[in-house]
Amino acid sequence: MINFEFYNPTKVIFGKETEVLVGKEIKDRGFKKVLIHFSGTYLYENGVLDRVHNSLSECGIEYVDLGGVIPNPRMSLVMKGIEICQKENVDFILAIGGGSPIDSAKAIGYGLVNDFDLVDLYMGRVTTDKIAPIGCISTIAATGSETSNSSVITIEEGMLKRSYNHDCARPLFAIMNPELTYTLPIYQTASGASDIMMHTMERYFTNTSDVELIDRMAEGLLVTVKEAALKVVKNPTDYNARADLMWAGSLSHNGLTGTGRIADFASHKIEHELGGMFDVAHGAGLCAIWGSWARYVYKTNIPRFAQFAANVFGVSTNLYDLEQTALEGIEAFEDWCDKIGMPTSLSALGIHPTLEQVDEMAAKCVATGNGHVGFFKPLYKEDVIAILNLAK
Fold this sequence. Notes:
By secondary structure, the protein is an alpha/beta fold. It is about 50% helix and about 10% strand.
């Protein structure tokens, strides 16, 4: 285990009907006017937005709404949000939804208190430790952005999906009511569960030794998500399974399962280019490429893949042929994807990139890491091209 720092100040308010507590949470912190940032029309239809409005009004807090967030949230809407906040003297940003509204809210928060070009922040040309105060109400179990330090935004010029990570971006509070996820389409629910699995797996596949404690925590989380996703696909109103997924989403990406080790995140970097070019659902994109990434890199540390196979998917360990066990674990993950309706190839995802598009995605991908991505096995442009071609 290597040295690490772990910091997670977000207050979590978890359970049924907790969204009505949002006014008090904001009032107790002394804020006066809120930008409510969200996506879609479902918050109107299910009454959540009305309940939030009422909670704020009852606490004497003014608010202004900004909807319109789409998957792979855009920088153009972020800039509109900053303009509204400045005009309306907003002092607090409340995101309602999944990772897209929360990430977009974080970007608005960065832009509101810094005077640099926000594109420069997400392109890695500047850094900051300052952000406007943010809280969130989760309505999907997926990215874990409600307690993470990460924000991912798509820059329309070049359709570049880029991230900025800093602990200042962890929301002050996260309200999490599993009942709010009941009406999600099954595909979106499954994509979210896949993202939770991948956030954990990106940290689990490491070459750092003596990390048994976090391994066991990660394996328990992975098994729970694997089983809960299967239950929810069959019964969307299974509260306990929904609760497991929602809490697991935060635990998978708040940094805990990455303590004491070097994480990988190559699959995420590759998928970001898929998302930027083809605007695919993030979790589905990860499923479409992970098996190809795994088969390309597994020989780097066969015992680690064999451990994953045995402890997460119950594959019988062949002590005489750990490679067979490792490969069976990769197949078991893909079988799980099939059962919840997730793609395991680019064609199943519905995209058929040309050789030129593959080359462009690979070049953009490694450019984010100064020529290579990943730490389990460093991947250069030719490696990313090979993985994308395998994934077709």
